[in-house]
Amino acid sequence: MTSPTATKRVCFQLVVRPELLDEYIARHTPVWPEMLAEIAAAGRRNYSLFLGDGGRLIGYYETDDDEAAQAYLANSEVAARWEAEMGRFFVGLDGRPDQAATPLTEIFNLHDQLTAAQAPVTASENESTAS
């Protein structure tokens, strides 16, 4: 597990309506500059979207405080306009895409596990493993 103060990795899933895939892709090539600025101002970074078969969309970003980032974007006029335009692209979505996407649970991260494996063993850990 990561510490509560560590960067949080967030992954989510949505489904784009197959008949609107070309338009959805075009809308992201490029995204409005003011929306890009809002995403950054919200504290989201290393943000990517990946498109799979059947319109499956996987999003990923990193943030130090996802609740604060969500609140910032929920109150942003620019994000409200963007999300109002994007809502029609998704299947089975209730609400704004940025607020209603299905989050995925992280079960493995290479960096975290390598770091944990290289952490020095403390005296109390040595005593418990020696029993």
From TrEMBL:
It comes from the Bacteria. InterPro entries: Dimeric_a/b-barrel (IPR011008), Rham/fucose_mutarotase (IPR008000). Gene3D superfamilies: 3.30.70.100. One of its GO terms (molecular function) is racemase and epimerase activity, acting on carbohydrates and derivatives. GO terms for biological process: rhamnose catabolic process. PANTHER family: L-RHAMNOSE MUTAROTASE. This is L-rhamnose mutarotase.
